[in-house]
Specification:
Elements lengths: L2 E5 L2 E3 L5 E8 L8 E6 L6 E6 L5 E3 L7 E6 L4 E6 L8 E9 L2 E4 L3 E5 L2
Parallel strand pairs: 2-11
Antiparallel strand pairs: 1-3, 3-8, 4-5, 4-9, 5-6, 7-8, 9-10, 9-11
Amino acid sequence: QLQLVESGGGVVQPGGSLRLSCAASGFTFDYYAIGWFRQAPGKEREAVSCISTTGGTDYADSVKGRFTISRDNAKNTVYLQMNSLKPEDTAVYYCTALIDNMRYWGKGTLVTVSS
């Protein structure tokens, strides 16, 4: 059964850091790009970052220079290192993969940036 499971969310003060993890199972992980999206209260889900099978990365303008995505194919895991967090980064963060024309999502992990 294909699964994406996010972890690492929590409450952090502005300027702080968190590292999110997305653990994948049920498919050949290193064959697929993995992305992170987020959804803030009352807003639409938006793309944050993605990483290709060869390690190429892309970021939303709002997180460039603060977030870093990486993958460990041996562990079937993608990470999102988030630094210099701002209150506007508060959201549920989801990882996602497009496999055989179907998009799969994890259940998300909540990040709250607040003093």
